[in-house]
Predict the structure of Signal peptide-containing protein.
Amino acid sequence: MSSQIGVGSSRAGDGLGAVGAPGNPRPGPHRHRGPRRRPSRDSSQPSRPTRRAGDGPSHRRPSDRRPSDRRRGRGRPGPRRPTQQRPGRGDRRRRLTLLGTLAAAVAALFSLLATPSATPTLAPGAPAETTQPPTGGAIDSRRQSQSDEELARYWTPARLVNAIDANVLTRTTGGESVGTGMPAGTAPGVGLTAGAPLAALEREPLADDVVTPYAGGGAAVRLDGALFTTINGSDYACSGSVVDSPGHDLVMTAGHCLHSGGLSGSFATNVIFIPGYSNGSAPYGVWHASQLTVTAGWGYQRSFDEDAGFATFRPVGGRNLQDVVGGAFPIAFTNGTTAGSLAGPQTVLGYPKLPPFDGATLMTCTGTTTPDPRGGHSLGLPCPMTAGASGGAWLSGFHNGTGTLDAVVSYAYSSDPNTIYGTSFGPSIRQLYQHAIQL
């Protein structure tokens, strides 16, 4: 911040006093300078003060005489010595300001050379990935630039039906991929390395009533919904839930539904949420996202332990999302990074889309959780939901259509399609939530 320096008036010099007349030279072979006469003082002018003993230090006034013509030859005045004007205070200030600016610039240059560069701000398409994911923190998208009119034109009924089922398919343990069975190359921003649809994996079906259409009523039919996005030019379908927030505008989902993961990944665009989605209907309207945020662990390195994200949504008709749907799920967080298991049975809600499901109906299953046997902090639950359920709610204490959100659907292993794994809410997810409610 530049400082404003006060500028005082600067004069070139005071007015000059009266000029005394030199004496006339006496005639003769030699030129003699006549006696110098003191100029008669005008009685109307104040007399010059005389310094007396005991007075303070004298302050010399500027000379009241011009340089006299000290030589007169042949009736012409001799050459005058040019007078030099002392620079004003304004000139000195300008020079000092310039010197100060140059000194500051040199100091800043040396500071940059001596200080290691900070972590760059993330942007879509950044070329490199970090070797270790940071602890905690969040990565935000830019403000969603699509207008309400553009989104309404983009998401036709045909696009909603044909949206690909968003999945995470690149976690490999012992040569086995994680995912819920998307064809190769169709995951958002990443490809399936051992890919075949789940229908081709000859999975052993569980009992017919393990995954059923949700028919319990209550808040769940309003607070859960289908989430549609575009990542790298392809349209995707996920699940999401309205969560309690001061702004009444927040939806929680899986991180991979909003960002393809890693520094080279991209945030989603064309993000819409349809609470209560059922067979193509939107009983509580279509909501358009304003901003997205995911954990730094997911956004830097695709850490499945931090596969979580939030989206804020614009008001519709002057009303916020939470007010229109009539409530929100509360969120519970664990104290440690390894929960081991979540207390009591968990109820899962989502919109699975691959066969035998169609993504048009809210489905549910219930079970108890166990740790992922391959490591990490995610938790497994016996529930064969397919792609499209990503980001779906895991609820504890579920009763009469409501419960507490404590995890979201994240992934499944191709060798064990009957178990889905969820990201439980440890400290990093708590930090993400606290960040999201301030967006």
User: Anything to note?
Assistant: The chain has a mean pLDDT of 71. Residues 187 and 352 are 15 Å apart (CA to CA).
